[in-house]
Records
---
Amino acid sequence: MSQVAALGSRQSAPVAPPRRVGLDQYTPLARRRRWRIGPRLVIAAAILAVVAVCAVVPDVIAPFDPLQPDIGARLTAPFQRGHLLGTDTLGRDLESRIIHGARISAIIGVSAVLLAGTVGVLLGLLSGFYGGLVDGVIARAADIALTIPYLVLAVAVVAVFGGGLVTLVMVLALSTWVTYTRIVRGDVLVLRRSEFVEAARAIGSSNARLIRRHLLPNVSTSIIVVATQQLAAMILYEAALSFLGLGVRPPTPTWGGMVADGRSYLANAWWVSTLPGVAILLTVVAVNWLGDWLRDELDPRNTSPQD
């Protein structure tokens, strides 16, 4: 009788209704990314915003014509005669030339990254997905490209096609597409054996659809990080080639060309070379800081569980 009574008491006890749990409450399944914004990112964003404005509307914010010489005001020191950053050897306003030089650096840097990224990512996808003969041919082409120093390639291309924006973009793209190819190829070699790729292949997805819809989105994080870091390298390469006279031809203002123009006047007119060099330094550092932040934030291991 006691067992029956105990069983009855258990059955009569109120049962709490099941609690509804949404999918977003499961910590292992739903995670949210917390973007960490530090002082370095703020400084980098501010510098890049200034460079972007200078590149987009240089004629609006430049106080003088960057190509107009004034021999009477040559080598004017900063903060004198109405020239905030002084003048160069021909009396041209240095502030205006630095502002217009930002457009050249931005156009060449972004164009070279887009061209090299497009070629490199495409070849990396094909190499990693198909393997075999395709992989071998692309790998040999990458090895050959790595054996040619970019400076030697630049001299050869400029000698054949002449200097200019298009030539410089071609040189920089030909020198850096291998980086994208190798990184994308490594990711695709792992992803092509994944279950979701095998499932898509089992339901009849074509190779083109597998690459476009399943592989490319999963390597996009690596592409974004590499492209950001390569942008800083492109700006440095452009400045180096312009310094050596292999870049955009004068009188078009370029940061590297301005550094070269003032190298003979460092003793008595330090600002002619130093201030364009500072512009290069700040821009490259800002892009590198942005690339480091993107690398850390886009790493899936840095996601935090939802509260």
---
Amino acid sequence: MEQFYTVEEVATTLKVTRQTVYRWMQSGALRYVLAGERRRVTQSALDAFLKEGKPEELEETSEGITIPGLVAA
């Protein structure tokens, strides 16, 4: 079964603000699903986001980031 993350969990894991995560979602860079009115990011969407060349905000803060369940290809 796929793991789902809240906006807060993604922001904490990537060491960015929730506003940055919402901005990535709005731009289409980070895919999400709706659970009612709440946004959730699947592990596969997070993996794809990290693999596909990240926005500059993430590149600036990416040193030492560990994503639970992320397997490097």
---
Amino acid sequence: MGTTSSNEEKTIAAVKNSGFNLHKVSEEMRSSEKVVLAAVQNHGHSLKYASEEMRSNENVVMAAVKQNGFSLVHASEEMKSNENIVMAAVQLNGRSLMHASEEMKSNENVVMTAVQQNGRSLEYASEEMKSNENVVMAAVQENENSLKYASEKMKTKVNAVIMEFECDAKVAALALVQSRIVQLSAKYVSEDGRGEPGIVVTCTNLGGDVVANVILKPDCNSHDLRQRISEMLVVPHPVLRLLLPSGEQLGGHTQKPLRELFMMT
């Protein structure tokens, strides 16, 4: 950036006091990297008064968005397509995604960072990202009201889980992208630990490892079973994909007795 003239020094002192003083200085000073950098470090939105050259200067724009993510609005089109710049902006305020280029609004890393900071920033993502299960799940986890900005396809999927399991949007979105498959098998046992006959349901993962054994009374139903497995594995019950020995998936509304469910005589 070279040496600093006395005029620059005075101007730097002025913009350090208030970045918005930049609009009062000469065109020459608005093109000085030292001056503009001092201004945007005081207030990012003072980038608005910088020269076109400075609004395309990566060092200056980076300092501006790190001070205020929304100052991205004043950056050049080139900077609005710069992943490092946009990432810094959305890390500070996810909704600054509204000022990013269309390319950045389709960048999964950028959009994911934005929605994790503020779920409602999903509103400004591309249609492709609004249909991305991981992105929508992250947005809903941060703010469940952000579901309204998802694609119709994603809203239908999430709402179907909500209806089936009577859960909230956060759990439903989680169930779509982090479901846990559990295979079930059952047999009678002489007692359930309280001196009564019972049914033991063995739960295994896809690798065949036993993850839980659940003992229930014979008159219990599939809802009781799902609830117990959920408690033992410490996961919300909509996340569980329970597979019966027949290969059929146990639905959330199923209320069959265990004997019938496992076709036990």
---
Amino acid sequence: MKEVLTAASDVVGCEWISPLEVTAAIHRRLPLRRRGDAEKRWWQIWAGMVPVTLDGQLYELALAAAATHRLRSLDALHLAAALRIGCTRMLTFDEELAAAARSEGVAVAGT
């Protein structure tokens, strides 16, 4: 994961959703002693990301992604954001999101 994250230069994230998802994952999955460094690194990455605005069009794309790929709501929003801006690759450690992205022609790092 470290290599993927440190190499990111053209990274986008879904406005408001990405920080919530990453913060939740850090606090759910990492031991207390590693959380501070992980959060610091995340906010450094986020500062260089281009947020995709969550609007009605993105919501419609996410509805379609959720129905087509049977994704959870936040995963559908992430995939919709990637598709909306024409991403050719994305980072995820979620197998269902990775499979959905690949089926839409988006390469996946992390899984």
